Amino acid sequence: MLPGNSPVVILKEGTQRDSGKRATQNNIAAAKAIAEAVRSTLGPKGMDKMLVDSMGDVIITNDGVTILKEVEVQHPAAKMIVEIAKTQDSECGDGTTTAVILAGELLKNAEELMDKGVHPTAISNGYRRASNESLELLDKISRKVSRTDVKTLKSIAITSMTGKSSEANAEFLADLTVNSIKAVAEKIDKRVEVDRTNIKIQKKQGGSIADTEQVSGIIMDKEPVHTDMPKSVQKAKVALIDAALEIKKTEIESKIQINDPSQIQAFLDQEEATIKKMVDTIAKSGANVLICQKGIDDLAQHFLAKNNIMAIRRAKKSDIDALSKATGGRVISNIDSMSKKDLGFAGLVKVRKIGEDDMTFVTDCKNPKAVSILVRAGSEHVADEIERNLDDAIGVVSLVFKDGKIVTGGGAAEIELALKLRKFAPRVGGREQMAIEAFANAIEVVPSTLAENAGLDVIDTLMGLRKSHTKKGRNQHAGLDAFTGKVVNMQSRNVVEPLRVKTQAVSSATDVATMILRIDDVIASKQPEGPEPDGSDGMGAMPPGMM
Fold it and tell me: I need a labelling partner for 25 at 20 to 30 A (CA). Which of 194, 332, 367, 538 fits?
């Protein structure tokens, strides 16, 4: 063989490489498959998915991000789509399905343009311009809403719950949502901030959804550690401790040599004295309720009960932090230095029997900036789904509290956006114009999916919506009523959503679509021989499908 003809091996043996058009098509196909997986869950008539994990645990939901989190996605491009769903959820609490199906539609339309010879870079640039224009247009068509407008705030919560398990009790749950957010909202430097972590959702199987209640304080799925302890304490002085009420074990190996039986008793007496000293310090501070993040020794439980102190052990760190905010108490790490100043205050600490279990309610707090919602439902699966629905509702209402801007739902905002983008496209010209028009068509995937899931004719519905938005005396709030199949004024029906849900969905979908479009080479290294540490077989080179 001639010297110039010898092969040059660059990549490791077993490495798989896809390049050019094949790589792009493979990535787009994976992203489209992910979008299709959640598409049927969108809207008032969206359907649920049943997910069964490897342990046999069942989740029934139509929440886009929950579906994508639970499904073990392997394809790298599909994982990117899952990431935008997670981002949408963390930023807004809702709109995850919208973001995913929009990304899928953008890539589908981009693929058609590429088949016509349009370069991916030109498409990416066009999409970017369309996205920036969309964000400006959305801001223009939005309207301001006051934080005191309870009716509109409730409508936002109800809109987010429509089509979900909580729909039948949406009015009631919306009340709980708005009241909870009003309770924890804080004004900081002329801005209103809502920390969603201050609203704790505690679920308990049994009863009905109508039994769900809001508590101005903290609910803990715990009970006092000793039967002789009080079950109810009024004007509670609460000690919050993240240290164990136990004899500390030495950090180094040690050996105790006992030569006389009396030394055993002396050793035990010393342990007892140490624990009694800890309890005496707590009692001396004036505390009558003790909530400990770690363990409490049996002997310590006895002494606490004798001092008439209600004690709870192994509380969650999140509960301790929430109690610190609510009661105004400091979290104590060193019991010896504990004083009256470290204690928090609660009007009532009471143990209540919920279903078959005892739960501790800490209410009438000094600074009630922590609220709990106790979710009740007939089954565990329903309670889980109600929790997810409430979390979404809390997310969207808190956004309006912070931003104060809303847009109409039912596909109205998307249709208006698409029409204005089509007018904008000719001003740009060139091949980017084609990309902007493709973006406008992709935006309409939201109303078309709403129609599809409602069993309506997609083309007729889109034509009807466009007509309502363009005819004389046009109505920019015209959207689809999925129950009647008619085009109606969504503003008058109070079908509204936060502006940020839409803007975040548009920008996230655009970001991931342009990133995937610019990939023309996928190099997948060979997995090591044998099973992965978690027992799976590994991803292999490039997975043939999305999951």
Answer: 538
Q: Is 384 a catalytic residue?
A: no
Same domain membership, residue 363 and residue 417: no
Kindly state whether residues 412 and 361 are assigned to the same domain.
no
Task: Check if the beta carbon of residue 478 is closer than 8 Å to that of residue 468.
Answer: yes
Check: CB of residue 359 under 8 Å from CB of residue 222. Answer: yes
125 phi and psi, to 5 degrees?
-60, -45
Identify whether the C-beta of residue 448 lies closer than 8 Å to the C-beta of residue 438. Answer: no
Catalytic member of 63, 89, 342, 391: 63
Among residues 66, 97, 363, 461, the one annotated as catalytic is 97
Distance CA 491, CA 468 (A): 14
Instruction: Find all residues with CB under 8 Å of 180, minimum gap 6, and list them.
Output: 199, 214, 371, 373, 394
What average pLDDT does this structure show over 510-519? Answer: 88
Task: Tell me if residue 63 is catalytic.
Answer: yes
Q: Which of 96, 152, 159, 360 is catalytic?
A: 96
In this prediction, residues 482-508 reach a mean pLDDT of 89
Q: Is the pLDDT of residue 541 over 50?
A: no
Does 96 qualify as catalytic in the annotation? yes
Picking from 43-47, 104-108, 497-501, 539-543, which range would have the lowest pLDDT averaged per residue? Answer: 539-543
Is residue 492 in a domain? Answer: yes
HSE-up of 157 (CA within 13 Å, CB side)?
29
Same domain (yes/no): 412, 344: no
Structural domain for 274, as ranges: 217-250+257-367
426 φ, ψ (degrees, to nearest 5): -60, -25
How would you class 328 by CB atoms within 10 Å of its CB: exposed for 0-12, middle for 13-18, buried for 19 or more? middle
Question: CA-to-CA distance for 238 and 430, rounded, in angstroms?
Answer: 69
How far is the C-alpha of 85 from the C-alpha of 288, rounded, in Å? Answer: 46
- Measure CA of the first residue to CA of the last residue in the chain; give whole Å: 44
Mean pLDDT for all residues in the chain: 83
Over the stretch 18-61, which tens digit does the pLDDT of each residue have? Answer: 566 777 788 888 888 888 888 898 888 888 889 888 788 888 88
- Residue 178 domain flag: no
How many structural domains is the chain composed of? Answer: 2
Set 89, 297, 391, 392: catalytic member: 392
Tokens 């063989």 -> residue = 1
In this model, does residue 394 exceed pLDDT 70? yes
